[in-house]
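Render Extracellular solute-binding protein in 3D.
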Amino acid sequence: MKSKKGFWLVLLLIIAAVFTLSACNSEKADSSKDDKEGASDVNKTGMPIVEESLDLNFFANKPAQNEDNDWNDILVWNHYRDMTNVNVKWDLISPDALEEKRNLALGGGDLPDAFFLSQIPNTDLLRYGQQEVFVPLNDLIADYAPNLSKLMEENPSIKKAITFPDGNIYSMPALIEEDFLSLRLSARPWVNEAWLKELNMDIPETTGEFYEYLKAVKELDPAGNGKTIPYGGTAIQELIQWLSGSFGVMNRGPSNSANIDVDPNDESKVRFYATSDEYKQMLEYIHKLYDEKLIDQSIFSIEWGQFLANASDNLYGSMIFYDPIELFGEDIGGQYNSMAALEGPNGQQSYNKISSPVWETANLVLTKENPNPEATVRWMDHFYSDEGAKLYYMGVEGETFEETDGEIKYMDHILNPEGDMTFEQSLAKQLTWLGSINGIIKADYFQGGESAPQSMAAAEKIEPYATKEIWPRFTFTEEENKVLQAAGQDIAKYAEEMRDKFITGDEDLSQWDEYVKTIESMNFDEVMKVYQQAYDRYRE
């Protein structure tokens, strides 16, 4: 009997297991069927994206420049809804509440279908990607994003920037057209050419000539009563980054902002350049400018409003800023001419202050709640095309722009609005690009100051000196992030504090060796190991 009971018990267990496995396979089959049905609803090419209207809920950062408009009823998104049959319902978050609301959504489980322009850091992309809160996009991009795929093929650094060490892509990026150098330069150097002529001097081409010009401006004091400021800016960082190419540091651009570049003696190795002899020499030069009051003494604390007021009063002999005519008007701004890269004391002359074409990693991030990832990826991919860029940055032909003889421009009611309304205010009533980059931004369709004639001419002058290889931000594993969030942040903070003290003279450069020793004692080797591993993956 015991033997027979054992037989039936085993048989029942086998039958139960078979039914359980069958049920699981049935569920998987149903799930697979649902997935295929969802994908079959999506047109891989052309418009609309889906035949039946699809509602999606997007969590989105709403820049301050868009404060007075509602994306749920605005020309650009209404037009795109009608084109695609995808109806995005926008949950718009102000920038000052963005991080808090984003973290609440992620932590509380009340997820949108996607996050749009929400500034999700790489650490969170990896964390929530590995927790399967965010949808891996590798296959979806390959199948439903031909425009982004083409851009990644043409510029492999784009794919490297959005691929994490686990091999997954968790977001679709915001990009700058690689040839749109003027935008990638951001603020750039300008010199007061009217004062140069008064001094009978040429535009400086070396660090020595720049020093002599600043010194001559101080002595001339064209603003009168000692108000003249030979060099001014909104942050000392701008001057440091501009001069980096004159001293051979930051040779792969500023995107990895932890003082990391490539070792000039071995390009397979990373270097922490903030302890290099070249960096010290640059700080000695900048300290000399500051000590002789050739740099605005308030540059470490100046507000934008005060800087603009000083510029409007014509107090600056040189600056690093955006287009002077666009910002200060023709009378003041027209006095300025652009500078390129200065040749340094050791003959180095490159322009390294250039952003990566990957402006932002997390333009669009899909969550596990998304009912149709295929359609959502297609929705985003349109903005990497020429037509999509035109739509986002120029709007709708006949409504916001007109094209004549190949020249595209905003219509008069936007360029010259009635009453007290500004250009930006009239634009924001119909478009949403102010304060944000979506998809790919192209020079042909961008009407900001970086496309103004003065800025484009400046970029053309700089182009021969532009560093050819610019790194995007590296991606890191969870363990590597722990090292960087601890010792890495401590080192970066200390290096920045000491940099400023060396420049102002609050710390004498005779203490340089002590500064280097202190950094090397701060788990420095472990931090450098992390960056080397990230760089090795990037090179692969």
